[in-house]
Design a protein that fits this description.
The chain is mostly helical. The protein is built from 7 helices and no strands.
Length: 180
């Protein structure tokens, strides 16, 4: 895209920035609603993905003699069931999501520690990697004990990002407008 074309698109960039800032602020002020929306979107994804897996399995079953289409059918049905369970029990889904994030942080930290200790002989300042591993493990433990706080922190991190990215887009759009 040439510079003139880019300059001509300052308004959509400005609007994107404003929407991003508003979204970020909503994450801060309506954190519970943001968590519920995230859970609903996860449920929608599981249902739609499950439907498409079933369509793919039926298509495979009709067009080929592939023996694996049955597993895709089972996966699709499971996806739809999990999606509907997400709608029925959004609170449980949110806590499971937090638990998965906590497990990821804990396992990542353990692997970071293992790597740091294995690299001690060839890596200077491996203590930084050790600190990173310990912090990841502590984050995982904290989320296990306080999953609600983990979800709030994740939504606030998303909000923080959205506000900063929105401000950057607004600033860039205003620069483009002045340059036009």
């Amino acid at each position: 895209m040439n510079t003139d074309a880019l300059r001509a698109h300052w308004l959509p960039l400005l609007l994107r920035g404003i929407i991003a800032v508003l979204f970020g602020l909503l994450c801060f002020f309506l954190t519970g609603a943001a968590i519920v929306a995230l859970v609903i979107w996860i449920g929608v994804f599981f249902v739609l993905d499950g439907i498409l897996m079933i369509v793919g399995a039926v298509h495979l079953g009709r067009t080929s003699h592939a023996s694996r289409w049955g597993w895709q059918l089972v996966g699709g049905i499971l996806g739809i069931v999990v999606g509907f369970l997400t709608f029925l029990w959004p609170g449980v889904t949110a806590l499971l999501l937090a638990t998965l994030i906590g497990a990821w942080a804990f396992v990542t930290g353990a692997f970071e520690l293992r790597t740091a200790f294995r690299m001690r002989a060839s890596l200077r300042n491996e203590w930084l990697w050790i600190v990173n591993g310990i912090l990841s493990i502590l984050l995982g433990i904290a989320i296990f004990y306080f999953p609600g706080a983990g979800l709030v922190a994740a939504v606030w991190a998303l909000g923080f990002y959205a506000v900063l990215a929105g401000i950057a887009m607004i600033a860039l759009s205003l620069r483009l407008r002045r340059a036009a």
